Amino acid sequence: MWLQNHGVEYEFINTRENSPTAESIQSWVEALGAKSMRNTSGQSYRALAEEKQSWTDEQWVEAFAEDAMLLKRPLFVKEGTAVLVGFRATEDVMREKLGL
């Protein structure tokens, strides 16, 4: 795994088993925006009605809190602040965001 290969200490949290709180999700959305946090390749996302295209961040926070599978993973939180979501960033960006 990339994190282990780069000596990054981390805590893995299975959001399916331990859903994050609405307050945590709200702070993540404030830091990264709801759009970047959407797991658009998952079944939960595809099952949503087309109105999802016009949802506000608040509506997304509610949806994420109801179904954590809507959240893109992995979500990197550093010192309580969401800094990055997904593994599509360049290695340089990942290093910067994770403080390596």
- Supply the CATH class: Alpha Beta
- Classified in CATH, the superfamily is Glutaredoxin
Helix content: 40-55%
**SS summary, helix count:** 6
Give the biggest beta sheet: 2 strands, antiparallel
Structure summary, number of beta strands: 2
Query: What gyration radius follows from the Cα positions, in whole Å?
Result: 14 Å
What would you call the structural class? mainly alpha
User: Approximately how much beta-strand content do the residues carry?
Assistant: 5-15%
CATH architecture: 3-Layer(aba) Sandwich
Distance between the termini: 16 Å
Shape: elongated
What number of structural domains do the residues give?
A: 1
Give the strand line-up of the largest sheet. 1-2
Following the backbone from N to C, one meets helices and strands in this order, namely: HHHHHEEH
